[in-house]
Every structure is written in structure tokens, then in C-alpha cells.
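In response to a reviewer's request, we include the raw inputs and outputs for one of the modeled complexes. The two entities were modeled together in a single run.
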Amino acid sequence: MNKPLYQGFEWDNELIETLWNTIDKIAREKFGLSYYPNPTIEIVSYDQMIYYCNNHGLPSMYDHWSFGLSYLKTSKAYQRGQHGLAYEVIINSNPLRAYLMDTNSATMQALVLAHAICGHGHFFTNNYLFKTWTIADYILPYMTFAKQYIKGCEEKYGNDVVELILDAAHSLSQFGVDKYKRPNPLKDEVVKRRYEEHKQQIENQYNELWKDKVQKPKSLGQIKKELKRQLPEENLLYYIEKHSLTLKPWQKELIRIVRKIAQYFYPQYQTKFMNEGFASFIHYEIMTELYNQGYITEGSYLEFLYNHTQVCCQHGNEINVYAVGFAMFRDIKRICQQPDQEDIKMYPDLVGKDYMEVIRDIVANYRDETFILQFLSPKVIKEYKLFTLYDNTECANMIIEHIHDDTDYEQLKKALSEQWSHNYYFPHIEIIKHDSDNMLTLAYTSSDGAKLKYEEAKATLQNFIDLWGEGCELLYFDENGKQVEVR
Amino acid sequence: MPIVDNRQNSKNLAAGSRKKFIDRYKQKIKKEVEEIAKDKSIKDIAKSGNKVKIKTDPLSQPTFAKDDKTGVHRRVFANNKSWSRGDKLFKPKGGGQGTQGSPDGTGEDTFTFRLTKEEFLDLYFSDMELPDYIKKNLKQSNITIRKRAGVSPVGPPPRLNYKKTILQHLMRQIATKKKPDNSVPLDTIDLRYNKYNRVPKPDKDAVMFCVLDASGSMGELEKTIAKKFFLLLYIFLHKAHNKVDIVFIRHTNEAQEVDEDTFFSCQDTGGTIVSTALELVSQIIQERYTPQTNVYVAQASDGDNWIEDDANVEKLMPELLPKLQYFAYIQTEELERVKTKRKWQVQDLWNMYERIRDASKENILHMRRVHEAKDVYEVLHDLFKKR
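The model returned the following C-alpha cells for the whole complex.
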């Protein structure tokens, strides 16, 4: 049995080091976790914490009035006690960088180390989405470059012009991310083949009667240009950057910066549920292990438990991702170690396996949508009494569609899984046409009959037009592909 | 593991963004600032933490978002207490549990936040300047002073820098002999002398004369208005031009130069002889300032003057004006009193200054009437507006 590393509330930098070394050993050896080595810890005041919360922890974010506004709002809300300040912020970079508030107790600091670095850190390092889309090695230098570049443009071309472009790009930033890897560059054979097909098509349409009205075939160059555009294109900012004829190189670079940063954060939106659940689960396991090995006193363990239950508590109807996420991982552990008849039927692959191996595999290969669809167990649904509310805006009533019994289990899983898909909040918008006057046609396809907020969409489209430089139009299609009215 | 502590250093990380936010909403914030300033006392506006409420344009951060009042929504919740499948819930008008806003909601219409003292004053004075300051600034200043500028190997004996010379000697010894013993004698190449450069003297190149009529004819209200005017002017000068000298002159039937405290707080009264103040101003200009200096005068009075002194004033003003860049005159008068002024008192400073102003070709004398303490702010802005 080991001696407790600390008693009570106080801590100093030396204790942080000791705590980390102990926690690191446990995380790697007992739980098989792996994260970028040699993480950096920064001790911050609450003022700095507010700043980092707003920037998702990135130091040297470029200056913009919208960040000023949100910083003011957050400080106000915090001062009014409207919400507690996050006691941990960590950024996905190599090496990892975590922020600890100076007012945390020693137990809280241990908790943060376990939750942020072992939990989130492992997630960032191993999950497939993060590995595909984020540049952990380069994000910090890239941010510094971005900030300097923007400042340089402001000095050279004036604050107002730069602000106009950044404003427009920000409003499109959620539509400036790649969701799939781009196909390889166009091969000449592909172009030639398409050209031959096109010519054949024109010839087939030839009719003696109408020979004066025949369509002229497009040239090889035209075919190549069309194929290069690779329409339809979801990444609106990417398209503007690559094909605009009016933007200057420095303006394109600004757009590129905004979309690179949006791309960096894209995996975080796709894995919020999983990431928090996993980190909560890990901090619980690690803190319990610290207690079992005697590194922390009973009093500290109680302090931790109190805090943990506060965070992972499901009050009210709005789902708490920490609570349900934690419960899901805890249930996976239970299924591996102590399954009952139902579990053996539903999850035969998990029974008898090492739970950490299973969980590590999940963390690496799933995202929120697929994780919920696969692993939301009936027991968790019953524990939290989940239910689905169905609301057709044209009806006067809402209906309770599914509840926590066995009949509705599959439907409930599907519903919650869809709630965490990208499409739930972000409308599906893509560029479908680029005609010879350089006019672009955008299409919004709705999956649930919802229209876009009209005034906002108009303003955003105007931003798009400002960046593109030529006219554009936005068409609406319902889920059957039929074009519908805008309002 | 590296543990970093930047708490002392990065005090205000969000400063750049905060400034950009204030710049963007500058017009709106400025209007708010002026409204606030009207009702507060000077002490209060110079404090930090003034609350400002502005309307943030809801469309200023638009994006493509689903309208949650349309379409079909399905959402999962927790803690189902008593509902069964198929239960119907009535939707209250205008929202309820069914409507779910997108997480990127554009937020409120109005927003309240606090300005720091600097930001408040910056905004308040942002469209004011000392007039014609540029003209005199462009003229070359001929006064220079000597400033230390390191060492040089040549110079006169009194400027020999002993320390540097010995140091140089030691360095040479170590370089040649590898150890400092005194076998290498001190040589002329070791000598070092102090060097001086001539730089233009940073002079206070502007002076503002504040002339206050402290006579008995100035009632409580007039005195308050005048004091508010000068206090604001004082803060403005300190903010915008910290190289401006300020000379405070109080006059009753005698003029005196006083310090800041006495100017604002002294209680004694007397008769009114304006020419004494004007003479004192002229005198001080001659004694202390060069023709290069920008001289400004701000005078506050209720317009009454000892009737026999009027001729003096009429003579002195046209002599004084050419020496100045700007003369700001405010006449403080309670509206009630104006109505009851007797006929022979209508001939007051205002009329006289008007004549002088119209007669002179240069646009130096400017005048405003002030009836209420609230007006002071507008008047100050008006007199010192950026052109």
C-alpha cells in the first residue's frame, strides 16, 4: 500500500509533477492508454480561463470583434454565476497542452490531469476522425502564422477590408469543411473518355429534321474544366478559394485560414458525446485506482466522487452528455465482465473480452453517430428513462413517440444517433451548378421538411456573393428532390 | 513535464479582440457614452466600470441555419416521469419543448457590458481636438539639449570615462597575455570619452489658459456650469494632449493665477473687471512662452462686466487674439435671469465679443451660450470638434 501523495487542498508545481507521473504510469500500464508524450501544463487565472474557453484553448488566436463580443458575454455570465467555468481546457496538439485553474484543489488538479490528458488526450491521439483531419503537430505554429498574416494584411490593406472578408468567411465557416477526402487529381484518360462520351451523346441526338438546332459539342478544354470543379461541392469556402476569378491571393489566403481552422475543429463536433463520456469514464477509473493503491486519501476520494456526481448527474429532461456518455462506457465494462442473458443476446462480441481493449477499439474507430447506434444499451435507456418527442410544426400537438421499453429500443437508438449527426443542426447545402457567366447555383436539400431561417440565409448568401464576386442563387429542395418555395 | 505559469504576463489576452469589438460598434457605444455622461458628475465619468447597453445587430453574424418553426423535429430527452407512447402534449403558443434552437443562435438583441475608464474617455473625446494645432507644430523648434550617447575613443580630458577605459585595458590584456597583470601598460587606444548628442528639446508646445469669472454676479448655477466646463476641458487636455500646459486664472476685480485646487474650489467673490484677466493672460504669454507655442484661451463668464471696464476689454481683445490659435468663450446664464435682465444690462460681454468677432478677419474667437449643466457636454464637443 502506498503513502498518500498529498492531504487536503493545497498543491504546488512539484505535487503536480508527482501526481502526473503517478497518473501517467497507471494510465499507460493498467489501462493501455496512449497519448502524445510530454504534455505541457499551464496554470491559469480565471480571467485567462475565460479567454481560453472562448478560443477552444488555442493561444494566439487572431483578433476579431466576434471573439471580443463572446469574451465579454462569457465573463459576464460567469460573474453573474450563470454557469460554472470549465475547470479544464485542453487542446489537441502535439505535445498536448492542458490548462489548470489556479483555484482548483489538489484533488481537482488530479482529476483534471486524468480527465483532460489521459481521457481527451488519448481520444485526440487515437480516434480516426482526428487522425484524418487534424494537424496536431502543426496547429500551434499555424495559429501563430495565421495571426501574423492577418495582422500583416490589416497593416497593408486596412482593417476594414480584412474585417469584411473575415466576417463573410466566418458566416460560412461551418460550410467550409471537408467531410470526405478529396478524390485524386484528374487523370487525362478520364477527361478524354468523358469527352468521347459527350461527343457520342450529341451525335445520338442528331436528327435530320432539326439539324439547325443541334447543340454544339463542348471542347476538350471545357470538359476538363467542368470535371475539375467536381460538382456538387459541399465545401463552399473551398470552392470559392479554388475557383474565384476576382479574389486576390491574400484574400484567398484569409479564406483558407478560416476554413483550415474550421476543419481542425470539425472532428470535435462529431465526437463531443463520445469524447466527454470517455474522458469521464477514464477519470473515474484512474481516480478509483489511485485510491485503491493508496495514493490519495479517503477524504480526497470523497471530494472527487462528489464532484464527479455533480457533473455526471442527469437533471431535468435535456440530456447531459457527461452523464449518458459515462453511463454507456460503464455499461460496456459491465457487459464485458458481468453480462446477463439480454447482454449475451445483444452484444455477443463483447462478452468475456477485456473491457479496456474493447473501449480502446471503440474510441479509435467510431464517432458519435455510429457509437450511439451500436452501443446504446437497453439498460442505459431504462436507467435514464429516455424518450423521443415528435414535433410536426404544422400540428398543434407534440407526440411522445418512443419510451424506454423493449419495443422502442431500436427506434430510440436511431433517433438519438441521428441527433448527433452533422446534418441535424447544419443544413445540407452544396454548389450544384457553375454556368458560363460564372454564376453559381447553390442547393439546400432538407431531410425533415425544415426551411432555412429566411433573413439569415439571405444575409449569408450575400456574404457568399461578396466573396465569390458574381451573382449566385440558392434553391430549395425537399427530401424527394422536388424544388420548393423558399418561405 | 513542462509546467508553465503565465499568469503575471498575459494579463489581457482578449485585448485585441475587445478593441475590435468596441471599434465596430463605436458609433453606437459613443452615443450611449454621451447619454451617460450627461447625467453623471465628472468624478463618476472618470471612474472605471461604466455600464453601456447597446443593440447588437442580430444579422451581424448570420449563417445558414434551419428554421425550427418549420419541418418535423424528433428529439430524445431523459427522465420520462409518466408519459406513455402515443401521449399528446399540447404546444403552448410561441415555443415550448418542441422548438429547439440551433446551437449557433445569433443571440440577444441588446447587450450590456462595462467600459474601462480609458475606453470611456477615449470614446467620449474621440471627435475632439485642439484646433489649428497642426499649424504651429509644423514650424521647426530651434531649441536643442544635450543627451548622453555612449562612448567614443576621442574627446577632451574632462570627459574621460575612467571605468570604461580601465575595462578596455583589461580586455586588451586578457586578449594578448591571457591574464590581467600589469605588464601591459595603459595605452592611448584604451582611452574612452563620454559622447553627447544634440537633440531637439521636447517642449510643451501648447498652453491653455482657463479664465474663470469668480465674481458675485456669478450665481451658484453659473459657477457650477463653468466649473463643469473647465473640469471636462481639463480631462480632455490630459487625455489627448499631455504636453499641454494649463494656466488657471481666476478674476474678480483683480486677476490672479492660481493652482488647480484653488481654481475649482475657492469660495471668495468680488466685483467683475474682465480686463484684468486679459492683461494677466497677455503678460504670462509674453513672459513664459515663445511665438512657437500654441496658445489657447477658454473663458467662462456670465456676461456682466463693470461698465467702465468695457472700453478696456474692447481695446485689449483685438490685441490679444492674434497671439492665439483659439479663444473659446462660454456665457453661462440661467434662462430665468436672462429674461429679467434690465435694458442697460443687455449690453454685455456677449454683444461685445460678437462685434469683435465679426470685425476680425481671423476665425479665432468662438462663443457659446450655456443654460444648463447638461448642455456643457455638447458645447464642449462643439467648440472643439474635429474639423
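As requested, we also summarize the result in words. The two ends of chain B are 59 Å apart (CA to CA). The first strand of chain B starts at residue 3 and ends at 5.
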